[in-house]
Amino acid sequence: MDERNKEKLRRIAQYTQEDFNSEEDVKFKFVVKLLECLDYGEQDMDFESGRTDISLKNLPDECKVIIETKNYNFNLSNYQFISQLEEYCRRFHALIGVLANGTELRIYTPYMMGKKFEESMLCIIKR
Q: What is the pLDDT of residues 28-40, one digit of tens each?
């Protein structure tokens, strides 16, 4: 990882609750900045497409990724948020669905055989 991205990650890690006044702040200050560190540009992101907050473009159809942002510190275990993400994953045939609230990312897949969506979390990444 280059020094520029390391510095971006340091800034992301230093955010506090005061830096996030809305879901839009979580989207642009946390998720978009993190995606940029992973070499995604805004041209690779589709905002509010079909009501999902962010979907990644320029991926093979079988590798769709959608991202739902929530207000800072909202509890991502909330069934309503997980259910909404599940609906979007199924509607858009996404391989990966991400919930983010400024403090963590939760990554799900709707394709775990024999598991309910809420049991299909692949990982939690805490800031």
A: 999 999 999 999 9
**DSSP string for 111-122:** T-TT--GGG-EE
Note the residue count of the chain.
Answer: 127
Residue 68: which H helix or E strand, with range?
Answer: strand 65-69
Kindly report whether the global pTM for this prediction surpasses the value 0.85. Answer: yes
Q: Which letter does DSSP use for residue 42 in this model?
A: G
User: Do residues 98 and 112 touch, judged by C-beta distance below 8 A?
Assistant: no
Query: How many Å apart are CA 127 and CA 2, to the nearest integer?
Result: 20
Q: Give tens-digit pLDDT for 51-91.
A: 899 999 999 988 999 999 999 989 999 999 999 999 999 99
HSE value, Cβ hemisphere, 13 Å, CA-based, for 76 = 25
Sheet containing 45-49, strands listed edge to edge, beginning at the edge strand earlier in sequence: 45-49, 52-56, 65-69, 96-100, 104-108, 121-126
Alpha helix (H) ranges present in the chain? 3-14, 23-25, 32-37, 79-91
